[in-house]
Amino acid sequence: MSGRMDSIIGSVGRVANVKVRNDDDLNDRLNHLYTTGILIIFTVVVSARQYVGDPIRCWCPAQFTGAHVDYTNNICWISNTYYIPMDFIVPEDISRRNERELTYYQWVPVVLLLQALMFYIPCLLWRLLNGQSGINVDRIVSLASEAQYESPEVRMRTIKYVVRHIDRCLDNQRESRHRCCVKLRHVLSAKLSILCGKRYAVHAERLPVHGLQHVRLQVLEDLVTGTEWTASRRFPRVTMCDFEIRQMTNNHRYTVQCVLPINLFNEKIYIFLWFWLVFVSMLTCYSFTSWLWHMVFPTSRVHYVRKFLKIMDRLGTGPDKKLATRFTMEYLRHDGVFTLRLIGKNSSDIVVAEIVSGLWDMYRSKKSIQIRNTTLPTNGHESEGEDV
């Protein structure tokens, strides 16, 4: 399902000359790509219905001309209507009518667009800070994703390039770790999709939209019992409207009954959004907990790396296990393991295993060079040469 959705979005992106990035996982794309796209589509649908069709139609007195009818429809749409159930008597007190006034339906497109922006802002923050972290995550993950479909020769060259690129990025970060600001910057950027993106996505889903309050258990009960939604208090189809028309020195007040066809669309849209956001919220909470677990507990990162070393038959017993721990904690660190996990989310475990194996070989060769350089001064001849 993920691959099919990504291919569809990718095709649309190519037509629109927009590059689909790979520096995230499926849950992130559900938030900033699919949910944002759905909200924008709904914004266009509701806006077209409001500004192209007839969002409201009022039943006017018989003496009203066409101009009067147009004025009534416009004034009732702009000044809001109020809802009184058919089996209730319309109160004579104007203040009691105003208490039942509906003020939201003109703002539905704006609220939907704001929701779409709220879902996309974390993605923008992640990509802005990721560019300052020293690791081009999008480039690395894209190359690794494409490598699984290449020929064996091209695949091996791509894997070697990715390994060298990750090694250089990790070396650059180690050299700049003594700078407090740089260190803080790359730590924030590497964790933003976990601590910021998913958390803001949850807050965006809690945006206090009037329509989302409608569904709740009542809709679930109606679905089970088969009750038709014909008398919704949140999205009423038939409302009342009060307005005045000035004729010379006299003001005539009229009360008309209006139909809001736009609420038929609003209700169905928010019913779908409620279930969709509940689904995305559950996946986001699970993903947030999973990433937080992997980030906080070092043993999780060590087990993750050891798993791929065992797949490639590169891990022995005793000293190798201790060296694998140092390889994970000192060489890869948070950012390296985080990048490997993103590669695994966007490609396959075989690609990750090959990259880990390449990094492991590079790390062991560097350790061997360090050990030789450390033991050289113990020899008298080398020491004299070094002093010279």
Automatic annotation (TrEMBL):
PROSITE patterns: PANNEXIN
Localization (cell): Cell membrane
Any GO BP annotation: monoatomic ion transmembrane transport
Keywords: Cell membrane, Ion channel, Ion transport, Membrane, Transmembrane, Transmembrane helix, Transport
Pfam family membership, one: Innexin
Signal peptide: none
Protein family (similarity comment): Belongs to the pannexin family.
Spans through the membrane: 33-52, 104-129, 269-293
Membrane topology reported for the UniProt record: Multi-pass membrane protein
Gene Ontology CC annotations of this record: gap junction; plasma membrane
Domain of life assignment: Eukaryota
Name of the featured protein: Innexin
InterPro entries: Innexin
Organism: Pomacea canaliculata (Golden apple snail)
Role of this protein: Structural component of the gap junctions.
Primary location group: membrane
